[in-house]
């Protein structure tokens, strides 16, 4: 029996690309805000990989986002009036339209929590902005590691005092699900074909026999009813 669902957030629950581009457009008018958002996101994995590899000690994603913003601002030759506020754009992401209601349905019978690379502070503020009704905040900060490090999935299960097979990882990214399955978790793929815009070329279909594969959170709630 699945007793808890843990969720990737950036991309699976929220439309980070459009939301960040909106924040960039407001802070840096006249710029190609979508290109800037994509470039900022492009620094995400390299920044975390330095921590995964041991080249750098654990650093919260809030700080990485701020550092990455400076990198991209230099590349674009711009300086926002309030860079600290722009760095918090990741706390103001809008949810995909199916998420608030679908998440509420899923929460009726099961624990729901993020298992994100975002910090507890970031996930808490984002939940308030996007109307995400989590029962608790799990993920990178409690493990002091970044997905797909196995420690992140193990720490989430341990925090809930549940066996891995009682916990389902929900994500729009096949790689996230593969890492979770390797630790014994159940898996649910949710299709988000425009996370990276209309030209998205990855994660357009389930790439393994995940326990559940659906098109949105409403379908996920129905599949698990």
TrEMBL record:
Catalytic activity: an (S)-2-haloacid + H2O = a (2R)-2-hydroxycarboxylate + a halide anion + H(+)
Keyword Hydrolase in record: yes
UniProt-listed Enzyme Commission number(s): 3.8.1.2
SUPFAM superfamilies assigned to the protein according to its UniProt record, in alphabetical order: HAD-like
GO molecular function: (S)-2-haloacid dehalogenase activity
Pfam families membership: Hydrolase (PF00702)
Keywords: Hydrolase
The keyword Hydrolase is assigned to this record: yes
Sequence similarity: Belongs to the HAD-like hydrolase superfamily. S-2-haloalkanoic acid dehalogenase family.
Function per UniProt: Catalyzes the hydrolytic dehalogenation of small (S)-2-haloalkanoic acids to yield the corresponding (R)-2-hydroxyalkanoic acids.
Protein name: (S)-2-haloacid dehalogenase
Species assigned in the record: Palleronia aestuarii
Top-level taxonomy: Bacteria, Pseudomonadati, Pseudomonadota, Alphaproteobacteria, Rhodobacterales
């Amino acid at each position: 029996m699945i007793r808890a669902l843990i969720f990737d957030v950036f991309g699976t629950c929220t439309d980070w690309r459009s939301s960040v581009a909106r924040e960039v457009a407001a802070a840096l008018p006249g710029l190609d805000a979508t290109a800037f958002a994509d470039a900022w996101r492009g620094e995400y994995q390299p920044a975390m990989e330095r921590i995964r590899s041991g080249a750098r000690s654990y650093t919260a994603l809030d700080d990485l986002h701020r550092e990455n913003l400076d990198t991209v601002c230099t590349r674009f030759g711009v300086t926002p009036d309030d860079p600290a506020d722009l760095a918090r754009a990741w706390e103001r992401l809008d949810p995909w339209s199916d998420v608030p209601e679908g998440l509420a349905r899923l929460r009726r019978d099961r624990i729901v929590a993020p298992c994100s690379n975002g910090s507890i502070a970031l996930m808490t503020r984002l939940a308030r902005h996007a109307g995400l009704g989590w029962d608790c905040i799990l993920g990178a900060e409690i493990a002091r590691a970044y997905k797909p490090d196995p420690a992140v999935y193990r720490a989430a299960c341990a925090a809930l005092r549940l066996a891995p097979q009682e916990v389902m990882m929900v994500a729009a990214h096949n790689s996230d699900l593969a890492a979770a399955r390797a630790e014994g978790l159940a898996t649910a793929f949710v299709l988000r074909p425009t996370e990276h815009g209309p030209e998205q070329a990855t994660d357009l279909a389930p790439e393994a026999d995940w326990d559940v594969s659906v098109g949105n959170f409403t379908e996920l709630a129905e599949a698990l009813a």
